[in-house]
Design the sequence.
């Protein structure tokens, strides 16, 4: 229900808390209303602060997808690609990092929870007529060699057989993971 709000749920909780506290201040002369507003507003404000502390903002698109790419996505995108895009383009609460469960399954976690590679952006494009979803990670705590090891042992099958996976180093500590839909190739073959 709240997955596609154009703002964070924590902002909504914050403003409800502020409104309740303001109502309590305005109705200070009426003891019962004032107390009930404060006892409503204070937990909302504290809840909003906790939510803000564990909030992951939507990952930005590195390039705005054109109409041809969006048409290819509607026709060729696999369920995995759709789910990843849905998960990274909404506010999330309580996770250590974007795609943390997938990164852990791929053995791409550092020594501590804070050492996950950080997803910094994504882009959608066409590669030889195939819908392609590219994830860009900043990975200073997980070496490129560890990414290559995961690529060689797990990644090829992890995202499903309808997805071809490619990987490239980006900058000093970055990795680009490319998920290429193979659906258009299967329908033409």
Sequence:
């Amino acid at each position: 229900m709240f997955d596609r709000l154009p703002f964070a749920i924590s902002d909504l909780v914050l403003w409800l808390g502020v409104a309740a506290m303001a109502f309590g201040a305005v109705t200070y002369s009426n003891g019962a209303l004032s107390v009930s507003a404060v006892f409503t507003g204070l937990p909302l404000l504290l809840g909003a602060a906790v939510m803000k502390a564990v909030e992951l903002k939507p990952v930005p698109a590195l390039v705005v997808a054109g109409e041809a790419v969006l048409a290819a996505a509607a026709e060729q995108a696999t369920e995995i690609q759709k789910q990843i895009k849905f998960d990274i383009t909404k506010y999330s609460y309580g996770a250590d990092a974007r795609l943390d469960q997938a990164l852990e399954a791929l053995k791409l976690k550092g020594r501590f929870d804070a050492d996950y590679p950080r997803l910094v952006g994504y882009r959608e494009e066409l590669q030889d007529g195939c819908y392609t979803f590219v994830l860009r990670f900043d990975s200073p705590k997980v070496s490129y060699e560890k990414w290559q090891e995961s690529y060689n042992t797990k990644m090829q099958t992890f995202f499903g057989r309808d997805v071809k996976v490619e990987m490239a180093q980006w900058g000093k500590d970055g990795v680009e993971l490319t998920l290429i839909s193979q659906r258009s190739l299967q329908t033409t073959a």
